[in-house]
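Hi team,

Filling in the usual template for the complex we talked about on Friday. All components are listed, including any nucleic acid strands or ligand strings, so the model treats them as one assembly.

SUBMITTER: L.P.
PURPOSE: interface mapping
COMPONENTS: three
RESIDUES: 1277
SEQUENCES:
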Amino acid sequence: MLSVIVFAPLVGAIVLGLFGRRLTEKIIAVIACSSVLVSTLAAFYAFWRLLSVKPAEDGVRRINETLFTWIAAGSFSVDFGFLLDPLSGVMILFVTGVGFLIHVFATGYMHGDSGFYRFFAYMNLFMFMMLVLVLGDNFLMMFVGWEGVGLCSYLLIGYYFLEKFAGDAAKKAFVVNRIGDFGLALGVMLIFLKFGNVSFVDKANMVSALSQAAKMPVEPFSGSILFAGGLTTIAALLFIGATGKSAQIPLFVWLPDAMAGPTPVSALIHAATMVTAGVYMIARTNAIFAKAPLALTIVAIVGALTAVVAATIGLAQWDIKKVLAYSTVSQLGYMFLACGAGAFAAGFFHVVTHAFFKALLFLGSGSVIHAMHHEQDMRRMGGLQKYLKTTFITMAIGTLAISGFPLLSGFFSKDEILWKVRSSPVLPGSLGTLLWLIGLATAAVTAIYMTRMMVVTFLGEERFRKASDTHGEHHEHEPHESPPVMTVPLVVLAFLSVVGGFVGIPEALAEKIVPHSLHGVTHSFYHFLDPVFIKLSTTPGNLTGALAADHGAELVSTLLSTLVALIAIGVGYAVFSKQPLLTMPKILENKYYVDELYDAVIVNPVKWTSKWILWKVMDVGIVDGTVNGLARLLGWFSIGIREFQVGFTRAYAIFLLIGALTVVGYFLYFGRL
Amino acid sequence: MMTLLLQTSVLDINYVAIWPMIILSISGIAVLLFGIAKDPVHRDMSMIGIVGFVLAGVATGRLWLPVKTVGQIRAFSNMVIIDHFSLYFFFIFIIIGLLTLLISASFLEAERLPVGEFYSLVMFAVVGMMLMAAAGHLVMIFLGLEIASISTYALAGYRRNDLRSNESAIKYFVLGSAATAFLLYGMALIYGATGSAELEGIRTAIIDNVNAATKQPVHTELLFLGAAMMLVGFSFKVSAVPFHLWTPDVYEGAPSSVTAFMATASKAAAFAAFLRVFVFCFVPGYGQGLHSAWTTSLETIAILTMIAGNIAALTQHNFKRMLAYSSIAHAGYALVGLIADDWQAVAFYLLTYSITNIGAFGLITYLAGRGDRETEIDDLAGLGFNNLGVSIAMLILLLSLAGIPLTAGFMGKFIVFKAAWQKGFHVAVIVAVVTSAVSVYYYLRPMVIMFFRELKVEPKRLPLPTGVLVTVVLSILGTFYLGVMPGRLFQAMENAKVSFVQSR
Amino acid sequence: MVPLSWYLVLSAVLFTLGAVGLFVKRNIISIFMCIELMLNAVNLSLVAFSSFLKHLDGQLFVFMVMVVAAAEAGVGLALIISVFRNRESVDIDKLNLLKM
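RESULT (copied from the run log):
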């Protein structure tokens, strides 16, 4: 059953890869979508089956499916097997579901593209790899999927291979990801050395690495433990892997460039699924992270910093997809912040809700780009709501959801994260409070830039006409709403973005707003996932953990974040909708003054910093510089080594003799000893 | 003196043990004679070659079970030892030899080169390699090595009128012969030091510290000197740094199918003999630290080899040369298994590497086109659109060479690294892991060019020859089989009886 | 009787001469003769050991080396002829197409 979920997209990929060239667009679309649909239905069926499985001793429901023994060398053996438990169950539901919607959308978006079959072959292959990653029952399988999704992402970013930037972006993504993968590989190796296997679940005569880790004592909170080769080291290495795939500081630079790929790719791979693999991995290995408070703290700090840095950068972007890209980075930061605070379930809940609203926003932007004939610059948009009604409304819902508008999905998940950080039992001292403040600030910035994006794109003056005039080329048609294959997925995703949060309403809030009889539903997400995560112990010196049970304080926090979101949305609207000055000249002066003030005091400095310091210096200067510098250094070495290759046989003979003399000398010296 | 003479007159002839070699020699001669005949038909000659290899494979297979029951078959006064070690390598050589025939058929036809000589040279080379793997005596190693090498020298210069092919052959010939001289000198010194030229005799002499002929202690300095010289010779043959300089030049100049043969079979044969002598004879704990001397020096050599091979490949623009550097790097990985004293790991690694590489070179023989000239990586531009099947095949094979999971390359590396790590060669393993991470970069560059670069001129490519197609399909199937389900082979190898090892 | 070490030293000297000749000589035929010199230096060692150890394997070895050297000469000279045909020269330094 699990094999069907995984292998259905592979069948699609193979069929398309081999015969796609000869098929018509329609048939390709049917094959691509139906293979994912089969997978989706199987996933829902498997999930339903999982609900009726009797929990194992540790309280976790599991369905295990072993296809065959992959490696058996001596005592070491790895199965080619799949594992369905609440964690992977939830993950496959939205991976297949959102994946299916995006496939449907893409059949409209890619209509008429010369590489139609190639695109869907890659997309199906990606689905296969992603499902291997999620369902693999050991680290090696996960690693296979991890590398596989990376490869597909690489192929798809570079899909528009004729454009130089697409190739460059693909290369950058690949190089940066290799750095992360290297950490992951080392981490897995260390796990194997320490536990003797790399399995997630206990098997006959084998206690899995994770169960062994769960029984180990918590490691102390000290700097030296980071290099001691224990659980903290493993956790840190795994996290390096996660920073690569999930675009965290310092490896986030590839994700914005990855927007060079077609928009459905950005939605599927670079927003909803692949980039959350890092969070999934940390949740999966929570048994290791829970024993390593130092690693958790690092995760939390990196997550919080990424969230705020990426959000501020997002303020200064003009490319609609870049805004969403930085937003993704920022939201991923939130998820890591939650994991670092020990709230794996909250972080994972945000993965799910984020998949809904971010896929929605990306597909919406795709619809806009489609309508604007592949124009991505928001300065040449404006006033589009007239033409793209469905897109506008659905995207507005997505924007409200991500901004934390009350009762939408993002509100519940983000609120839970903020509260869990505030009351974290693992972060040292009052760090929880500090990170909470950063999270709150980020929430405000998020609401501002999302509102800005909506306002600049959909409201105000229709700047695209002017833009096309200055370019000397006219759009022959008005911007047009996308066909139903594209808008229907938007509507479905919008619906999910609205209701998706209702399965995970925080308890304190649920008591106030939900009838008691429904509490089973409104908290079902957490109840369902709870057994997967092992109990955390309080780190010595922690000051925030005591708050956890205080429902009053939680409600205050909720109120605060709601206010922040609403005010930020209002501010964003106020600031950006007044930019096109010509409309209301009378009231302009006063408002202009406010705008100027905002500009001078808040927007410009933030813009300036984000543009010049954060983006130009950090992103382009330091990080790119390091990567390029390393490549250049290796290039020199390479040419240096090849310099020996002079081409003269006699020179080679000399080297042969010198080498021989060295070896002989070494042996004789050794023999004398 | 008389008794010794008498002993050698007891010839211990056992044709059954050497059936594979006999079959290949006969079919090699048959192809050669057939080639002289008037108007030889290519297809017939290919048939003889293929049948010869298949029969040799069958003969090898039929030896497997008897060897399993008796442990090993010795023949010709211990000159030949047939055990699972040799049989395993026989299989590698036979598969590679067969695939080499398949990928060269169309090339020979297009270039109007004589087919009979080519096939027979390949077959004789394979016989030589088999002798190396099955050698029980230094002289057999030497003979096998020379049979294989001399055939390969001729193969490298097979395009007689091509300057590059000439140059490649001469370089290979001069340097290869010099290295053989070193190897031979080493053999002579070891013979003098231990009083025996039989591998088992050398091993016993070193363990007992008694010269087999004079009954005095083994002469340490001669022994070390001999071991060092042999190490130089073998390192040259496997193209380890600093004895690798010939490799890129020779590989680039030789016809692509010959390069394929050299990069896979020749290398595997050299490793087989290397293992026979160093792992089975120079065992740990005896010979005044001979074992630690050769492992430490080889560890350094392996590290240098992995670094130099991988890094030099980074900036290489010629596909064949890049694969030459890559083959240097792969020799480094196999050496990591060698220093871990683990013949199974090395043998498995060589199998995975050979299976993958022969497919990659098969594609190169096809892509290089007429005159074997279009071997620049840039020549691949746009292939992903021109010919998706070929480029995906190439992609899979390159990914396997890079060691991406689910492919044979990953499994081979995994086994070798695990063995070496357990034996405590941590530095070597770390270098190996880092360099294989680096290697992904250059293996994927052809892919970037294939998929992300516009084609400049529409190349006039012929349809894929059947031989190349079969080779590539087999190679890819093997790559996935070994990468996904290597369990049975592992089991077979773990149960393999190699008495040298067991009696240690 | 001449002690073993004298033979060994002579053999080593001859081997070294051959090895040095590899990069001193530019004529491919001379280089080829240097290789022969190296092989024969080893032959001397083998014969000396064989006599010293009173063990016949060494002499067997020498015969095999001679046979092989003859085969090598056959292939080697053929290669040299083919180079000469194409380039009208047997200067090994002119073979410098393949590099880097």
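MY TAKE: Residues 2-503 of chain B form one domain. Chain B touches chain C through 49 residues (CB under 8 Å).

Thanks, L.
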